Amino acid sequence: MCFFTKYYILPLRNIKALYYGDFIMTWEDAPSHICRGGDVRGLAFCCPPIKPCPILNALEEVNLTPQEYIEIKTEFGRQTRLGEGAGTCFGSLIWCCKPSKPCPLRDMTLRNMGMSYEEYEDLKKELSEKLVGVQKPEPDARAEALAETFNISKIEAMKVLIDCNNDLRRAVSVLKAQSLDDSD
After folding, report:
1. DSSP line for 138-155
2. Is 11 part of any domain?
3. Which of 31, 65, 101, 149 sits a CA distance of 20 to 30 A from 111?
4. Please, what is the Cα angle at 167 between 29 and 159, to 5 degrees?
């Protein structure tokens, strides 16, 4: 997995150590946020669909209306501790983002509740399964497109996709950076 800073790429495990101390992700293949190019499982980390954004395309992909999406998340919040968090942006942890995205409101709420990042991620994974099922994204079509675009083997493209947690946008950025380095 990789994480981009302004100047260089760091392995994500270093970033986890930076943000979480000894926190170990329990949802190892957690997707990026939908607004950052993540797959539909990222709906678990989205806020309510109150403005035009990529969430609307993701909802269409999983055949949910915005109202159904809100109802599923709200009901899940009632059944779990994710329904707590009045001090967050939308009044509930159900609408909060991934722990890899810094957020003082979410983090303060988790600390005050005594909820660990591990429990938070486990509940978000469970929510994702309710929203879209447990299907994993198919990297083959994406890898083929990356291989053609960057003139690399499909195996190399699949490796980059896996290293970037099947996040196509991140994989494209990695391959662009590699091609720039190769051209120098």
Report:
1. -HHHHHHHHHHHHT--HH
2. no
3. 31
4. 80
